[in-house]
Each structure stands twice: as C-alpha cells, then as structure tokens.
C-alpha cells in the first residue's frame, strides 16, 4: 500500500483528527498569513481593487490549508494538488469559490501535468506537511523545479514538523503521538499505521538547518524559518523563501 493509499483510507477522519490537535488550525492560518504578507496581499485590502494572487497549494489534502489560504487572501485563485484521491474527494465536497480548483497528482508530476492552470506562474506556493513525505533526493529536485515555476519575486512557504535538533522536541513529539494521536486514530476509525508513519517520518525529517540549506541550494533567497507556538514550539516550523527577481 502506498502512502497516498494510506491517506485515502483515513481521509474521512482526517479533519476530525486535526480538529482534535490543539493549535493545528491556528498554526496553519498563521502560515497562510505569512505567505499573504510575503506577496504583499492583506485580508483587509479592498477586494474590488486588490489583485488576485495566484497560489499553488501543494499537498492540499482535504482542503484545510486551502481554507486557511482563502481566509488570508479571499480573492486568491488557488490550485490545490494532492496525490490522494480520497483526500481530494473530501476537499471537493466542501464549498469553494469558483476560483479554487483541486487536481489529482503528486509534486513529482508538476513538470508534465496537463492541467492548463499549472502552466501559469504562481505568485506564491504553499506546501504544508509535504516535503518530509518525499525522499531526500526528491526534495532537492522538487525545490529546484519550484524555483523555476514561481514568478520572479514570488514566495514559497513550507510548513512541517521536525524534531531532530532538540531532545525536548523529540520527547514531546513521541508522547503526543503514542499517548494521544495514535490511540485517537483507532477510536475514530482512521488507519493507525498512517499515524505511526507520521511519528517516524517527523523524527527522520530534515533539521531546520538542513532544509534551509536545501532552499538556498535550489536558488531561493531571503530564506527564513520560525517555529510554532504552544506545544508546537520547536516541533512545527514555517520556512519562507523568495525566488530572485530576473536580472534587468
């Protein structure tokens, strides 16, 4: 069974489990607002005059990140991409503006994906809980490709867990997973194997230093990272980066 299949098996319970995660929605909204600020879009702008930013939501899952992006950028034209048909099914049954669409596919398919909406250069790319699911070599290849797909001056935001730099973070992460998340997955009828994978993949994920290095190596500038609040401190990280402007 592939990872996409595992997400599909748990898709109907995914939103419930994230709702039970204290601070999950808040951190996702904060990250979306970071991207909005980076591309110069504010929620309080006049919607009739503000330009409509083009945003890719990679690994959009059931649409929770898409909803956060629309809250931060109500006029945005968003393309959500995910490799799990079940997660996209959950996203599509929700109510969305006509400027939002969801596509089936993995990030490795971006260079050849036939959808016309993916031919336009986005102003921003949002990737929440995506890169740790890619093999290390694929992370570099994907970042290098994204650096060419963004418009010059466009922004990339990556939002994900990593605990390799802190003993406290590793302990807290293991306690949360084994005492709360994995037992809850069984109670609500999700696949506990997916959440055991979650625990393991986070422990094996890049350190913040390594991932920042990958961003720089891919050609991004203004690379920065901040950590989350509450129990997410030192565990959840938000990276921001900018594609350089074209030389004049």
Key attributes of the depicted protein:
single chain; 248 residues; alpha/beta; Rossmann fold; Ubiquinone/menaquinone biosynthesis C-methylase UbiE; methyltransferase; Methyltransf_25; SAM-dependent_MTases_sf; transferase
Let me know the largest β-sheet.
Answer: 7 strands, mixed
Strand content: 15-25%
Indicate the overall shape: globular
Order of helices and strands: HHHEHEHEEHEHHHEE
Q: Tell me the total number of β-strands.
A: 7
Q: Widest sheet: strand order?
A: 3-2-1-4-5-7-6
Query: Using only CA atoms, what is the Rg?
Result: 17 Å
Task: List the uncertain runs.
Answer: none
The CATH homologous superfamily corresponds to Vaccinia Virus protein VP39
The first-to-last residue Cα distance is: 50 Å
Name of the CATH first level = Alpha Beta
What's the overall average pLDDT, rounded? 93
Task: Return the structural class.
Answer: alpha/beta
The CATH topology label is Rossmann fold
Keywords: Methyltransferase, Transferase, Ubiquinone
Protein name: Ubiquinone/menaquinone biosynthesis C-methylase UbiE
Domain Methyltransferase: 55-154
Task: Give a verbal description of the structure.
A 7-stranded mixed beta sheet has the order 3-2-1-4-5-7-6, sandwiched between helices. It is globular. It has one domain (23-162, 206-242): Vaccinia Virus protein VP39 (Rossmann fold). 43% of the residues lie in helices and 17% in strands. It is an alpha/beta fold. Helix 3 crosses helix 4. The longest helix is centred in the C-terminal third of the chain and has 22 residues, at 167-188. The termini are far apart. A hairpin with an 8-residue loop joins strand 6 (221-227) and strand 7.
């Amino acid at each position: 069974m592939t990872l996409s299949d595992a997400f599909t098996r748990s898709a109907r319970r995914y939103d419930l489990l994230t709702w039970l995660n204290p601070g999950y929605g808040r951190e996702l909204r904060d990250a979306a607002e970071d991207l909005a600020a980076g591309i110069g879009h504010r929620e309080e702008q006049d919607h009739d005059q503000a330009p409509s930013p083009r945003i890719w939501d990679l690994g959009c899952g059931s649409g929770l990140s898409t909803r956060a992006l629309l809250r931060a950028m109500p006029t945005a034209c968003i393309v959500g991409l995910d490799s799990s048909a079940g997660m996209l099914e959950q996203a599509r049954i929700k109510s969305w503006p006509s400027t939002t669409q969801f596509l089936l596919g993995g990030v490795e398919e971006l260079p050849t994906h036939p959808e016309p909406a993916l031919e336009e250069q986005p102003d921003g790319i949002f990737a929440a809980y995506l890169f740790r699911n890619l093999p290390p070599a694929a992370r570099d290849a994907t970042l290098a490709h994204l650096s060419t797909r963004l418009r010059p001056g466009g922004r990339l935001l990556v939002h994900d867990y990593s605990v390799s730099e802190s003993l406290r973070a590793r302990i807290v992460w293991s306690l949360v997973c084994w005492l709360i998340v994995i037992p809850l997955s069984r109670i609500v009828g999700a696949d506990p194997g997916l959440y055991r994978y979650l625990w393991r993949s986070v422990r094996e994920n890049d350190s913040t230093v390594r991932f920042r290095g990958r961003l720089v190596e891919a050609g991004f500038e203004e690379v920065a990272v901040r950590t989350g609040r509450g129990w997410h401190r030192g565990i959840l990280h938000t990276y921001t980066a900018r594609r350089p402007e074209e030389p004049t």
